[in-house]
Design a protein that fits this description.
Layout lengths: L5 H13 L2 E5 L6 H10 L5 E5 L3 H6 L3 H5 L4 E6 L7 H9 L6 E7 L7 H6 L4 E5 L5 H4 L4 H7 L3 H4 L4 H22 L6 H12 L4 E2 L2 H8 L3 H13 L3 E6 L13 E4 L2 H7 L5 H5 L4 H17 L7 E5 L3 E9 L2 E7 L9 H10 L3 E6 L5 E4 L2 E5 L9
Parallel strand pairs: 1-4, 1-5, 2-3, 3-4, 7-9, 11-12, 12-14
Antiparallel strand pairs: 6-8, 7-8, 9-10, 10-11, 13-14
Helix pairs in contact: 1-2, 8-14, 10-11, 10-14, 12-13
Length: about 375
């Protein structure tokens, strides 16, 4: 079964009209290759596909300039982080006066980890970040399944809960033992695995490198390095604090969320839905799921997402700007959320244009002219 990503296909058409190179970045197994093939089916000209995990395709690119310079139409290069030496070649090809070729590159690491793309292709490349399935793709009636199993297509579409859980366990093992070394990081997989498991307990909380480092017997620097690596491979989202002029003592450390709740549940060893519903982190898990859905629907980049927090006083889960105005989002796993001291303080302190409270119910209602309670399943219908 395939689910067509019409919105992403339209975005790719728009980006490739204006840029010689477009990069689709996202975690492994999230559907980047499927999207590229769906996109190529509607491409009007020739399409050439290279899988850089294939020994045969790697041999075809032994002399990359020679292999690519005479191709026309669309050239797709999958798992680009495996061959960083291709980026200078792409720059040369992108700068040719008679551009008859567009390049679509797929990568399983952020642009910060694929540094060569930003250095070699500055001004020539557009980035499109994607994750797994979203509520818009699978339908709101499957929201609970998407939350429990996670957004990776093979986990979500698995024939049973047991098959989904096993796929996630296998993904975690492969990620640690194969994917991280392939990115060029010489890290002990067991140590990173322990860090990843321990990090699950920080889901939805402020990250404390000193505390987690002490528990693992590593330095603060090493703990932060592990976190940055998991962020750069789209496993974890670091929300930076919103900084502004105030006399209040604002929080300065990042808040962390697992981008995929299915992986979070696997690290907690929760193979079944009932296990998730009886776990102490139930509310935090749903709130992280809802927050990630909200960010995806808004198509916010990582440097556009923040949280707001004042020490021992108040927090708001998400702060972002649209059209020059500041907005806030609070996520509550509750049946009928209302005002709290945090939401009232945020409205006054930040002068928010509007504040939404996302919850798992099905009715939208206003708390006042600047505050609306909205079901997660209706969030993507918001217009700015």
């Amino acid at each position: 079964m395939q689910i067509k990503r019409t919105i992403e296909i339209n975005l790719l058409n728009e980006r490739l009209r204006n840029n010689p190179v477009v990069a689709i970045l996202g975690p492994r197994q999230c559907g980047k290759t499927t999207l590229a093939r769906q996109f190529s089916e509607q491409w009007p000209k020739d399409v050439t596909f290279f899988d850089l995990e294939s020994p045969l395709d790697l041999r075809r690119l032994d002399e990359p300039l020679l292999a690519l310079e005479n191709l026309e139409g669309l050239v797709i290069l999958d798992e680009i982080q495996r061959s960083p030496d291709l980026f200078p070649v792409l720059r040369v090809l992108a700068d040719r006066p008679n551009k008859k070729t567009k390049f679509l590159i797929l990568g399983s690491a952020s642009r910060d980890l694929i540094q060569q793309s930003s250095e070699s292709l500055a001004g020539r490349i557009s980035y499109l970040e994607m994750g797994g399935f979203t509520l818009d793709l699978v339908g709101s009636e499957k929201a609970e399944k998407l939350w429990i199993r996670g957004t990776f297509p093979k986990s979500f579409l698995a024939t049973s809960e047991a098959a989904s859980y096993q796929w996630r366990l296998d993904f975690i093992a492969t990620f640690l033992e194969r994917d991280i070394p392939q990115l060029g990081f010489n890290l002990p997989s067991k140590a990173l695995g322990r860090f990843w498991q321990m990090l699950a307990h920080y889901h939805g909380q402020i990250f404390n490198a000193s505390e987690i480092g002490k528990s693992l017997g590593v330095s603060d620097h090493t703990a932060q390095r592990y976190l940055d690596l998991l962020s750069g491979t789209f496993m974890v989202r670091q929300l930076r604090p919103w900084n502004y002029n105030t006399k209040k003592r604002i929080i300065k450390r990042p808040k962390i969320y697992f981008r995929d709740t299915g992986i979070l549940h696997a690290l907690f060893v929760l193979p079944k839905k009932n296990d998730v519903f009886s776990h102490p982190k139930l509310g935090a898990s749903w709130e992280g799921f809802a927050l990630e859905e909200a960010i995806k629907a808004l198509r916010l980049q990582e440097d556009e997402t923040f949280f707001w927090g004042v020490h021992a006083s108040a927090e708001i889960d998400l702060v972002f700007k649209k059209n020059g105005k500041l907005y806030g989002v609070e996520v509550k796993y509750a049946q009928a959320p209302g005002f709290t001291s945090s939401t009232r303080m945020a409205l006054n302190e930040l002068d928010l244009k509007h504040l939404w409270i996302i919850y798992p119910g099905n009715k939208t209602y206003a708390l006042d002219k600047n505050t609306t309670v909205i079901p997660l399943t209706k969030w993507s219908s918001l217009k700015f």
